[in-house]
Amino acid sequence: MHKENNNKGEIQQPATTKMAKKTDGKEPDTKGITCSKEDNFSDWYSELVQKAELADLRYNIKGFVCYMPWAVLSIKKMYEKYERVLERNGHLPLIMPSLIPESNFLLESSHVAGFAPEVFWVTETGAGEKFQERLALRPTSETALYRMYSYWIRSYNDLPFKRYQSCQVWRAEATKATRPFLRAREFHWIEAHNVYATMDEAKAQVLEDMDMAYEVLQDEFAIPIIFFQRPQWDKFPGAIHTYAADALMDSGKVIQLPSTHLLGQNFSKPFNVKFMDKDGIEKYGYITCYGPAISRIYGAMIAILGDDKGLILPFDLAPKQVVIVPIIFKESDDAVLKKCQEIEKILTKKYRTHLDLRTVSAGEKYNHWEIKGIPIRLELGPRDLAKDEIIIVTRKDGKKKSVKIEELSHELSHIASTYTNDLKDAQLAKFKDFVVDCENIAEVKLAVDNKKMVRAGFCSTELDGEKCAAIVEKETGAFVRGTKFGEKHSKHKCVVCNKPAKDTVYIAKSY
Amino acid sequence: MHKENNNKGEIQQPATTKMAKKTDGKEPDTKGITCSKEDNFSDWYSELVQKAELADLRYNIKGFVCYMPWAVLSIKKMYEKYERVLERNGHLPLIMPSLIPESNFLLESSHVAGFAPEVFWVTETGAGEKFQERLALRPTSETALYRMYSYWIRSYNDLPFKRYQSCQVWRAEATKATRPFLRAREFHWIEAHNVYATMDEAKAQVLEDMDMAYEVLQDEFAIPIIFFQRPQWDKFPGAIHTYAADALMDSGKVIQLPSTHLLGQNFSKPFNVKFMDKDGIEKYGYITCYGPAISRIYGAMIAILGDDKGLILPFDLAPKQVVIVPIIFKESDDAVLKKCQEIEKILTKKYRTHLDLRTVSAGEKYNHWEIKGIPIRLELGPRDLAKDEIIIVTRKDGKKKSVKIEELSHELSHIASTYTNDLKDAQLAKFKDFVVDCENIAEVKLAVDNKKMVRAGFCSTELDGEKCAAIVEKETGAFVRGTKFGEKHSKHKCVVCNKPAKDTVYIAKSY
Fold first, then answer.
1. Looking at chain B, which residue has its C-alpha nearest residue A174?
2. What residue ranges do the domains of chain B occupy?
3. Which of A147, A149, B71, B410 shows the greatest Cβ crowding within 10 Å of its Cβ?
4. ipTM over cut 0.90
5. A156 shares contact with chain B (CB less than 8 Å)
6. pTM above 0.90, yes or no
7. Cα–Cα distance between A308 and A13 in angstroms, integer?
8. For the domain with range B70-305, which CATH number is right: 3.30.930.10, 3.40.50.10490, 3.40.830.10, 3.50.50.60?
9. For residues A321 and A376, is the Cβ–Cβ distance under 8 A?
10. Under CATH, what is the fold of the domain B320-417?
11. What confidence tens digit (pLDDT) does each residue in A165-191 have?
12. How many whole angstroms from its chain centre is CA B56?
């Protein structure tokens, strides 16, 4: 990860991309991606973000970036898909204020300890108005919501109470470098907060949250994930347990994506979230919360799916799905152009289609739209037209195919309907042999250096295991990600201290 | 308008609704709206918001409210509709940081003067990090965006440059009472910011902005509006001209809805938004900005369309479009229920349909869904079923009609396709005789007291007319809204000072 290299409130672009000219889709960038994803992921990612025009790092507050249209068009579709699944599962949308009074924070002690250092505080208005207490830009909304839940929930009839909001949060992370979408001081997420009458129902919600992540992230966004129950030293501040998805990458490193937290009654007690039960007794609710960070998921997705030519996007998320490139020579201009326009008119009814009429070479156009990750490119030249054929190139695998123009529509339907699933299958296949079993720390180091995830015995994922986890980190640079959700414990000895293993854990490097 | 009646950082609910119990759709509210919209708009609005469960005012920061699901579901659809029209007209979405460095603000002097008193300032982080300068929670994004535009715009090829973002803004308005959706310290809007090569093109964008407002607000949301060019003393800080839509209400008062601002080169010069023109000369761009405040439009819409039974909503914006109420007596339960479930299954494919199976009286259900504004209610009892009929009640006019069940689908199609347009026509008809011409201030007072809008001659809408406008306000409680866009000046004398009139202005009370 590149480091912030000044402290003047500005983030510098990586040197390789700093001087490149802005294009905004109008001046073609003919260079493609010059860094190799395999050799230098960090620079590759920076160059991808810059050349595909996804984010601009030149905003003049440290840790804050501008999201550009090509990214926002996909991010909006990702929100729609996640929200649809949440609503189908009974969640209703809310919009909460983005400021939280300091006194709300102080009610749950682990929570305030975990988040207080990262809070941006609003202390004054321009007119000199003084607040009785500081106002936090929400780093997460538990302490704003649950105070209101205490008004909104009265009886068992109100349960389950399932709500979500799509919003941004702010966290002044001090130690980590900004990386657009993956890590920044303002990011965009969904947070769902649910209240149940019993612990068992709350646990079932955690399972539903995981199912939603597999459905949306893995099936729709083609991101391979595994859910872990995080060790106690790595859980959400205030939770009983945290279950987090790790997305898998070629580099062997993982990125934490949605996490769901079993809060139990840890928040319902201080925030007084009570209900009158059927038996006439007032009881505290059991709460779960779930935080798919859409901007981070977008970053992970482009990092995982992209290649050295640029972006690769799931079909439904691509801002444009089909680009038509006419291959024009002087004598044949009119017929080719006319046919391209006809095709555009037909395809536009079904796909987000773009006809590229710029006066640059076809090669430049290919590069440009490969960087942008348009799933399907159509090429039509006079020789194709003479045979009533058109060339289809799919971005995900670079496959080229000539088909009769009359069969185009049928061919595209097939590609459209299989494109994302093919992406997903290819990703899952990559990680078939990703996990290796290790018996000692030397094996762990070798495995993570070989871009693998390790499965090993571990003395404990309670707080008393943290010392061994620190040794893992020091010796290998990797982290104990937790126990795999739903997997049976099978190991005898701790991979670090050789004491009897209470848990079978997974270890990997992470971003 | 009710006033904030304490200064302890809490907003009190109006006394009439303060003690009412939370229902969240589960415990029926049998009371309906008790205030009359005509007699007491302010209390009626508060009660509507509370009983239809649209917002909760009990959030513990002054001027900040929680938006509840029934409102958010409509607001999300309103965003979708507006964004679709913006994108159709060539605007691309951005997501900008919500914090703006103080130094950005200082670059345009009228702008900073206008907004500085209302800014919420972030001054510190929880970890004690000191910023070199204060960070503003954006009250509007000109000063964040145009600094970036200076990077993004290079040549005439980049123009027109049309961008929008959907986001919230914060304004610490000191003097005005909070009213959910209509006025609060955090609200949700869209802002579009466009750059052109010439003033004429920028002026054409202002026209497009007005057309979009008529298309979306008037045609889709059924809100009657008129656009005025605001007097110079009432324009956007930093603009050459401000054109604002006033929405018309039964009370005779208007509410300002989207406004579009011709900024010319007022911002492009300090923010260095330049482009290389075709002639090889570097020039400053001409900027326009446009700010449809969706949460405020929602508030205006429910205020304008609602009646003493509760909400009335445009068909597409209703969270649920059809509610089915079975009329059940013991002996006939099964057949009626079964038929209702059959009908629900069919209608769900086309409409957002709800079958109300609660064990409360049919009358309570009618009241409840009338308050919530569901456009169509279906009632089915054993006598209807015996005749193969079903009763359709439309919310907007209370009309009741019995139709053969086999014709239901056809009937609903007709109602769905005309519902919103009928709402719009009914609103426009109300305001056919809304404007009256006045010759002196006594006539103006009489007219506005009679809930009319006044057309009158006015000495000037430049700054030298502000004195006469102050007299209008003092004598009548009404405001000079500006000149009607596209209307020819026709008056001879100023309605206040009797000097020759340079403009024909409109005068109305406003919220």
1. B127
2. 18-68, 70-305, 320-417, 435-508
3. B71
4. yes
5. no
6. yes
7. 20
8. 3.30.930.10
9. yes
10. Rossmann fold (3.40.50)
11. 999 999 998 766 789 999 999 999 999
12. 18
